[in-house]
Design goal:
263 residues; single chain; two-stranded antiparallel sheet; mainly alpha
């Protein structure tokens, strides 16, 4: 959702020559940021819904759950405890339930893992991983979009439905560019994601005391499992998850920009 919403700050889309007599831009600037926020929010919701079932499997892979060995910033801080509890519940398998539900998970973590601080294990790799992920994702999509519309405007682009003087990518090209952007960004930031998930699982894992900080966790994962089976474990599955997610996010955002007259 953040990726789609932040796209509003990107460079303006390529434009065609202004037609004579065309209306000024002020007519459609009312509540611009609100409409931009709604466009990004809708895009994020659609993207998250598309891949939600794969999130649980990714958590199990990243933490090396033995039942699945065969399977190959303000907003973040405010919602992080919810993500923590979600990961703990997702990691549970039949016959090994540590928590009976959401409320029990909250109470247990608070009582046994240091109070409120217990809900923020793994926050540092989350924050550090956001920068390369967001930066690479935006840069890649923006670059592909700009290059595509510059070199093959007729083949890859079409006039925007809300402003014929603005060129936008065709839907299937948007999907392709969004997917490529997501795949590249995930590859670069994935070790931070693995570190975050392991730290979030906390006392659920036997190596809990060896993974108290971000660097200790990374060192432990690298030392015991290496790069491919440790820091990048589950990446292939995450491609299946993130490629359609980012493709849907960027494409939906581009469509919502036209729906809310943001071009």
């Amino acid at each position: 959702m953040a990726a789609a919403a932040a796209l509003a700050a990107a460079d303006p889309p390529p434009t065609m020559p202004q037609a004579a007599g065309a209306g000024g831009p002020t007519a459609r600037r009312d509540f611009y940021w609100l409409r931009s926020f709604l466009a990004g929010g809708i895009a994020g919701c659609c993207a998250k819904t598309t891949v939600a079932p794969l999130d649980r499997v990714k958590v199990l892979l990243q933490a090396h759950n033995h039942h699945y060995k065969h399977l190959g910033m303000t907003a973040v801080i405010c919602t992080y405890p919810l993500d923590m509890v979600r990961v703990r519940l997702a990691f549970q398998v039949k016959g090994e339930h540590t928590y009976t539900g959401i409320i029990h998970a909250f109470k247990t973590i608070y009582a046994k893992e240091g109070g409120c601080l217990g809900f923020y294990r793994g926050l540092m790799p989350t924050i550090l991983g956001m920068a390369p992920y967001a930066g690479v994702s935006f840069f890649t999509f923006g670059t592909l979009k700009s290059v595509g519309l510059s070199h093959a405007p007729t083949l890859l682009g079409r006039p925007s439905s809300d402003n014929p003087n603005v060129l936008v990518l065709k839907t299937h090209i948007n999907l392709l560019c969004g997917g490529v952007a997501g795949a590249i960004a995930q590859t670069i930031s994935y070790p931070f994601d693995v570190t975050r998930r392991r730290m979030q699982l906390g006392t659920v894992l036997p190596e809990y005391e060896k993974c108290l900080t971000m660097w200790e966790t990374m060192k432990y994962v690298y030392g015991h499992h290496g790069i491919r089976r440790g820091l990048y474990r589950g990446l292939s599955l995450n491609y299946i998850r993130c490629v359609p997610s980012q493709a849907v996010a960027f494409t939906t955002y581009e469509l919502m920009k036209q729906f809310f007259h943001l071009n």
